[in-house]
Amino acid sequence: MSFVRVERRFQGPERSGNGGYVAGLVGTALAARLDDSHVPKVTLRMPPPLQQELELAATAEGARLTHGDVLVAEGAPFDSDFLADATIDPVAPEEARAAEAAYRGLHNHPFPTCFVCGPANQGGLRLQPGPIGAGRTACTWRPAADLGTDGLVDELFLWAALDCPGGWTIDLDGRPSVLGQLTACIDARPQVGEECIALGRYLGEDGRKTYTASTLYDADGRVLARAKHTWITVDPAAFN
User: How confident is the model at residue 25 (pLDDT cuts 50, 70, 90)?
Assistant: First the structure.
């Protein structure tokens, strides 16, 4: 058992934590206890509170993040075959950089303070996933030095970076959504300062839920991480 805080730098909407970052807190704690046949599936149960002491408990059977008696998020082992088709075909860095110019969040972002992709978060990852054809996004990411230890990016921030490239395959202008569930696998950690490529892919929707996938590559074209997401349509005003 340990205690964690989601500092304001790591927010998503104005008054709650970024979904990918919070899922990473739970997912990395659980992943350390799993064998290769399982990956963490993390479900967010409420908007994660900012700047509050949260209790994180993890065993091989699962993980729970709580605020007092309230469940914030929980993780469960899931069959790793679930991510077998999550890997998105890579694109050249030049194509990913070109896509950033069409990133819709620069001008009409439902949550501009988002740690991963918010233009108003100066301490964020600053990802700008732009479209590269129907249902796909791409962007570059050069992790800052404070995101790693021993020269490598911490797994927690790889979970975060897997978040929004999937989200921006949705029409977030017309269908504002927040992360409800993230299932991820970290295959390798890149060097801090290394240019990486982040990709997203739309998978489908059902009512208020939208399903997407994302993949991170390093500068040599090696898969760093893969994920699948479930997004929930919301009213952004509820978070402001």
Answer: very high
Tokens representing residue 115 in the block: 């740690």
Q: What is the pLDDT of residues 178-208, one digit of tens each?
A: 999 999 999 999 999 999 999 999 999 999 9
Exposed e or buried b for every residue in 162-192, given b needs 16+ CB within 10 A?
A: bbbbbbbbbebeeebbbbbbbbbbbeebbeb
CA pair distance 138, 141, nearest whole angstrom: 10
3-class DSSP state of 145: helix
Burial of 46 (0-12, 13-18, 19+ CB in 10 A): exposed
C-alpha 172/C-alpha 93 separation (Å) is 25
pTM across the whole model: 0.96
Residue ranges and CATH numbers for the domains of the chain are 2-239 (2.40.160.210)
Distance CA 95, CA 107 (A): 21
